[in-house]
Amino acid sequence: MTLPGAALPPPVHVARQPIRRPSGDLLGHEYLYRSAAGRAAGVDRWSTARQDAASASVLRTLYDPRRPRAAGLVFVNVTRAFLVGDRTLPPPDGRLVLEVVESVRADAAALAGLARLRARGYRVALDDWTASSAQRAMLPHADFVKIDCRDLDRLGEAGLQEARTSGARLVAERVADDELRERCLDLRFDLLQGYVLGRPALLAAVA
């Protein structure tokens, strides 16, 4: 697969963090861009062009034909460029979940792109749900909605119910300890992600 026009070199490291069912069974992983030193790079604070390139390089790393097939679903942050066809995606394989970052605006081209990609077999997750107008517009296209545990009090039960209205499965992010895990189970989250379930681990380099 060729992903053209990267504005930065491919990452030396990609990390993955498990996403688990309440039973503890593995659903898949979120795959995260890491700096050359293997640390979180703060991609959400980068320019749009650099975020595009970071997502492209994570996808290129994961779909390198030399790399063994990943276990479970593959969640990767994507920007608007991937929704509207300005950036290339790997062919749909039933595993790739396009995790739409919260900065994507829900204009007509982005919404049409989401519908087209889902029809082709990609799954869609909305990252960092805050019930923004853009996220509400994209919600009918979502298979998963990810909610940061730090937003639970602000969203309340009504915010969680809204996220469920189109049938999406709710993923609790930043589940840092057992107390938060129990709270998320009480709130009927479908899936859990965070340090108490597993910390991000770097993928081994391929030869």
UniProtKB/TrEMBL annotation:
<protein>
    <submittedName>
        <fullName>Diguanylate phosphodiesterase</fullName>
    </submittedName>
</protein>
<dbReference type="Pfam" id="PF00563">
    <property type="entry name" value="EAL"/>
</dbReference>
<dbReference type="InterPro" id="IPR001633">
    <property type="entry name" value="EAL_dom"/>
</dbReference>
<feature type="domain" description="EAL">
    <location>
        <begin position="1"/>
        <end position="207"/>
    </location>
</feature>
<dbReference type="InterPro" id="IPR035919">
    <property type="entry name" value="EAL_sf"/>
</dbReference>
